[in-house]
Specification:
This protein is of the alpha/beta class. It folds into two domains: 1-177 and 269-331, no CATH class; 185-255. The chain has helices at 2-11, 14-24, 31-58, 134-147, 164-173, 183-198, 203-217, 221-234, 239-251, 258-263, 271-284, 293-307, 311-319, 324-330, and strands at 75-87, 91-109, 116-131, 155-160, 178-181. The longest helix has 28 residues, at 31-58. Residues 325-331 have low confidence and may be disordered.
Length: 331
């Protein structure tokens, strides 16, 4: 009964889980009991995750220049992002979400030429999460990287937005990977530069954006940065804001080889982690939901397990952990 109750509560609100258990599994259980079971076993799995991260980081392995990767033909990717959930007494706090995925070739329709082409595609996605700072999240990230045999892969990539905490973690744990700033975030910055220089919704802004989009896709981020810097000198009212956008492209220029990355079959969008963040939020940010930090942290491991179809495996890990009354007494 406990296993079913927790699995439903990882998908639905506690009230909805209670109703579903009664209707679909003929299990009569109170909402309070579903909550209590989730708290008890969630604490157990939380401790398991912490132990796994501790063990993984105790034997951290990183590639050094010139070191040969594993002999596997597998290509792996990773991505990270943040989303917000409401914690009582703390208000909105960032939930950091990371994912790992296989990168495979697949056929798709080219929106420009309308021809069928081969492109990189993310599959077999797994998730990690942490409600708090980047350091403990990085330890969880590395534990999952080792579980996915990151350094046995033939090649790897990280695709994400421009947040500094993300690329700092990449430098610490995944620095041997190909690095890509998400294409859609890059074009958002290009669009912002167009709006700052020419006004929102104007034909001039649209024309300039279209003109610059092609060289950006071809990997000429340095030229984009220079062009925006020149615009800044012509637009004194927006000079500071435009220089900020120019700095964005100059700082990430080595992560913007979009044409080469697509040609080599890598993904250039971080939709997989953004989708993961939305799925976490779907459980934690429904109307009226306000969480205690402890309550959220105990549900998060099972929510992630459900999302990557590892619930039964993670349940066994929690079940085989030290007795829950001991864990709860020490929490």
């Amino acid at each position: 009964m406990a296993q079913k109750a927790i699995k439903y509560s990882a998908k639905l609100s506690y009230a909805e889980a209670t109703e579903a258990l009664q209707e679909l599994a003929q299990i009569e259980i109170s909402e309070n009991s579903v909550w209590r079971l989730t708290q008890e076993w969630g604490e157990a799995l939380k401790k398991v995750e912490e132990k796994e991260a501790e063990q993984a980081n105790a034997t951290i392995e990183q590639l050094v220049p010139g070191q040969v990767r594993g002999k596997s033909d597998q290509r792996l990717g990773a991505s990270m992002d943040g989303s917000m959930i409401y914690i009582r007494g703390e208000e909105w706090k960032e939930l950091k979400c990371g994912c790992f995925f296989e990168v495979e070739w697949t056929f798709a329709l080219d929106p420009e030429t309308k021809e069928t082409i081969e492109i990189g595609h993310a599959s077999d996605t797994s998730y990690v999460s942490h409600l708090g700072g980047p350091e403990p999240f990085g330890r969880k990230l590395w534990a999952e990287a080792k579980r996915r045999h990151w350094h046995a892969a033939a090649d790897t990539q990280v695709v994400a937005d421009g947040a500094a905490w993300i690329w700092n973690l990449v430098a610490d744990y995944l620095y041997d990977a190909r690095q890509v700033v998400d294409w859609y975030h890059a074009t958002e910055h290009l669009g912002l530069a167009a709006k700052l220089a020419f006004g929102e919704g104007t034909p001039q802004a649209a024309g300039w954006f279209k003109q610059q989009e092609t060289p950006l896709f071809q990997g000429h981020a340095s030229e984009i940065a220079l062009t925006i810097t020149q615009l800044a000198e012509e637009k004194p009212a927006e000079r500071e804001n435009l220089l900020q956008q120019a700095g964005y492209f100059d700082h990430h220029k080595h992560r913007m080889d979009y044409l080469e990355m697509r040609t080599d079959g890598w993904v250039i969008g971080s939709g997989m982690v953004e989708s993961g963040g939305k799925r976490f939020k779907d459980r934690f940010t429904k109307a009226g939901m306000r969480w205690s930090r402890t309550g959220a942290e105990r549900l998060l491991p099972f929510r992630g397990a459900v999302m990557c179809k590892r619930f039964d495996e993670r349940w066994i890990a929690a079940y085989n952990s030290p007795p829950n009354w001991m864990l709860l007494a020490n929490s």
